[in-house]
Amino acid sequence: MQLFIGGACAGKRDAVRSRFPGACWHSAYDGKALEAWRESLPRQGVVVLEGWERWLAAWLVEEPADDSLRERLRTLLANWRDLERETAVSVLLILPEMGRGIVPIDRAERRLRDLAGWLAQDAAACCEAVWYVRHGLVHRLSADVPTA
Amino acid sequence: MIAFVSGGARSGKSQVAETLAREWHRRHGGRRYYLATAMASDAEMAARIARHRRERGDGWITLEAPVALDEALAGVEAGSTVLLDCLTLWASQWLYGSGLPEAEGGRMLSALLDKARLKTIGLVVVSNDLNEDLPPRDPAVWHYLAFLQRRHRQLAREADRVIEVIAGYPIEWKTSLKNSGKIAWENPWEGT
């Protein structure tokens, strides 16, 4: 697995497109639900999952317990690691960095920000490569060996 | 030389930018210009401008360019030093005060960079990093952020140096790109 993370309009999508031109995309911006990710799987190659702020916001509405949500996300990450072991598919996540502002007054926004941060940590821990995208420039954060 | 310096509020980005500008000036001589995008629209803004001016000290010629960045360079001599502070304000003035089409903003910035290269000007551009907060819900704020980020990506692409400032410390991004870019293109997934 690989993770590309960066702020809004930082150039994450372009960074991924230029590196993985043949990838299949499963995107919330195309109206796709996260749960339907299997529909976008290629026989082999890279599948890109993007639009997490929308998926996470939808999950937050239906599930009041943050710990349960984090556990569900960890299960998904584990599923993708299994998938990579068993098939010729590689999973690439594009995550939004949204934790560098003032603590929001709105509870739903606080939960979204927390969940996005936890997901980024958990995803980074099981990715072979983590890339930080800033103003269109890309910097590799992780070593080659996964930490978990 | 074109340098793009950005960071959070009170990160020390103006001081880092001034240091870069002074280094260029020490090596190349000529005049030092301060390209001010801020307008003293109220007392608070006037006080901010006065504070920045005090911190810069003497020896800077102030040019005011709330919108027309490229025209401001018309009278600047070749080899001079120009410090533009800051692009964030320019972006808001372009979008909400100029009445000019949004797409022209990118061309204006390109024209500024082209003129700076043509005249061998040491140009240092300062801006604020605003895009790592929650995505804005207000469409107008989102629109502004997207416009500013397009300009930031344009600058980062074209600048010779891209520097992030955290707590007064400069982090060189363009140098990092050269290293990490090599790793990216050797990505085993792509076999290249």
Architecture blueprint of SSEs:
The complex is a heterodimer of chains A (148) and B (192).
Chain A: E1 2-6, H1 12-19, E2 24-27, E3 44-50, H2 52-62, H3 66-86, E4 88-96, H4 107-125, E5 129-134, E6 137-140
Parallel strand pairs in A: 1-4, 1-5, 2-3, 3-4
Antiparallel strand pairs in A: 5-6
Helix pairs in contact in A: 2-4, 3-4
Chain B: E1 2-7, H1 13-28, E2 32-36, H2 43-56, E3 61-64, H3 69-72, E4 81-85, H4 87-97, H5 102-118, E5 122-128, H6 139-158, E6 161-166, E7 169-172, H7 173-185
Parallel strand pairs in B: 1-5, 1-6, 2-3, 2-4, 4-5
Antiparallel strand pairs in B: 6-7
Helix pairs in contact in B: 5-6
EC number (chain A): 2.7.1.156, 2.7.7.62
Protein name (chain A): Adenosylcobinamide kinase
Keywords (chain A): ATP-binding, Cobalamin biosynthesis, GTP-binding, Kinase, Nucleotide-binding, Nucleotidyltransferase, Transferase
Walkthrough of the structure:
Chain B: It catalyses: adenosylcob(III)inamide + ATP = adenosylcob(III)inamide phosphate + ADP + H(+); adenosylcob(III)inamide + GTP = adenosylcob(III)inamide phosphate + GDP + H(+); adenosylcob(III)inamide phosphate + GTP + H(+) = adenosylcob(III)inamide-GDP + diphosphate. Chain B: Belongs to the CobU/CobP family. Chain B: Pathway: Cofactor biosynthesis; adenosylcobalamin biosynthesis; adenosylcobalamin from cob(II)yrinate a,c-diamide: step 5/7; Cofactor biosynthesis; adenosylcobalamin biosynthesis; adenosylcobalamin from cob(II)yrinate a,c-diamide: step 6/7. The complex is a heterodimer of chains A (148) and B (192). Chain A is α/β, with parallel strands linked by helices and 148 residues long. Chain A has one domain: P-loop containing nucleotide triphosphate hydrolases (Rossmann fold, 3-Layer(aba) Sandwich). Helix content of chain A is 40%, strand content 24%. Chain A has a six-stranded mixed beta sheet, sandwiched between helices. In chain A, a hairpin with a 2-residue loop joins β5 and β6. The longest helix of chain A is centred in the middle third of the chain and has 21 residues. Chain A is globular. The two termini of chain A are 12 Å apart. The relative contact order of chain A is 0.23. The model of chain A has no long low-confidence stretch (mean pLDDT 94). Chain B has one domain: Rossmann fold, CATH 3.40.50.300. In chain B, α2 links the parallel β2 and β3. Chain B has a seven-stranded mixed beta sheet with strand order 3-2-4-5-1-6-7, with helices on both faces. The C terminus of chain B is likely disordered. In chain B, α5 packs parallel to α6. Helix content of chain B is 49%, strand content 19%. Chain B has 192 residues and is α/β, with parallel strands linked by helices. Chains A and B meet through α4, β5 and β6 of A and α6 and α7 of B.
